[in-house]
Design brief:
Length: 174
């Protein structure tokens, strides 16, 4: 099953509230007291076994999967967990949380996204700039402008598109 199908199945079995609450708990490290807290909700258990997860190099994957699940199941009260995830040590978590911030238009993520424009990982910078296009305010324009001088072409392209989107959305030149 695809990630969206796994999440859809988890929602059908457990309800959107349980799935979203579980995902937020995984992202923030909060204890989970729900029905199962089973990673099978969002991960392919056939590939990602408990032995695989026990490897310290893979410790961050549940947070990636939890964030990704929020692309497909959502309640706005998960927004603070997504913002927490933007500061995660693992770049894949930061990238996925930026994607969620964009999809769910989490305005309170703007300042954190602006900071991620200087992230050492290109994919995180791209995701942050793309999210700022939809949730950034005028005070985030300098971060988008800085991304326009990024050494990576992908970031520069997204910065140009983000600036235009922000100008239209905010109805003012930036």
């Amino acid at each position: 099953m695809t990630p969206s199908e796994r999440v859809r199945d988890a929602v059908a079995r457990n309800g959107v509230d349980a799935v979203v609450t579980w995902c937020a708990a995984v992202l923030t490290g909060d204890p989970w007291d729900g029905p199962t807290g089973d990673l099978n909700w969002v991960a392919d258990a056939g590939v990602h076994t408990s032995e695989w997860l026990a490897n310290p190099a893979n410790h961050y994957w549940p947070r990636v999967w939890a964030a990704r699940a929020l692309l497909y199941a959502w309640w706005p009260r998960a927004s603070p967990a997504v913002v927490v995830g933007l500061a995660d040590d693992a770049w894949r978590v930061r990238e996925m949380c930026a994607k969620v911030a964009r999809r769910r238009e989490i305005g309170e993520a703007g300042d954190d996204l602006a900071g991620l424009v200087a992230d050492p990982v290109t994919r995180v910078r791209v995701a942050a700039v793309r999210a700022l296009a939809l949730v950034g305010e005028a005070e985030h324009a300098p971060a988008v402008a800085a991304a326009g001088a990024d050494p990576e072409l992908a970031v520069r392209r997204e910065a140009d598109a983000a600036r235009l989107t922000m100008e239209r959305r905010l109805d003012r030149p930036l």
